[in-house]
Amino acid sequence: MTPPFHNQPKSPPSYPVQTYPYPTVPQFRCPFCQAGTPPIVRSKISTGGWVVFVVLLLFCFPLFWIGLLMTEPIKFCSTCGMRLQ
């Protein structure tokens, strides 16, 4: 005698698998030297950060360092060293 159907273990639902052509990320090309190496990312204090630094330095000295935390990423080509947009 077989057990009732509602006591049978359920199999997990199957979902369609999407495949993407290799590579999934676009390749980087430097517009200056055409190198395919990934860029170097550095951060520098933004213009707004310097403005906040000066304003807080003049009006609220203990908090002047907050402006130095406002940074922006800058990309450089790892081969030729040119700044990228």
Molecular structure report:
- The chain starts with 39 loop residues before the first strand and ends with a strand.
- With 85 residues, it is α+β, with helices and mostly antiparallel strands.
- Helix content is 15%, strand content 16%.
- β2 (71-76) and β3 (83-84) form a beta hairpin.
- The longest helix has 13 residues, at 47-59.
- The protein has a domain at 27-84.
- The chain contains one helix and three strands, in the order βαββ.
- It is flat and about 75 Å long.
- The protein has a three-stranded antiparallel beta sheet with strand order 1-2-3.
- The protein has one helix at residues 47-59, and strands spanning 40-45, 71-76, 83-84.
Question: Would you spell out the secondary-structure blueprint of this structure?
Answer:
Blueprint lengths: L39 E6 L1 H13 L11 E6 L6 E2 L1
Antiparallel strand pairs: 1-2, 2-3
Given as residue ranges, the uncertain stretches (5+ residues, pLDDT < 50) are none
Query: Which value, in Å, is the CA radius of gyration?
Result: 27 Å
Give average pLDDT, whole number: 85
User: Could you say which overall geometry the principal axes of the C-alpha atoms support?
Assistant: flat
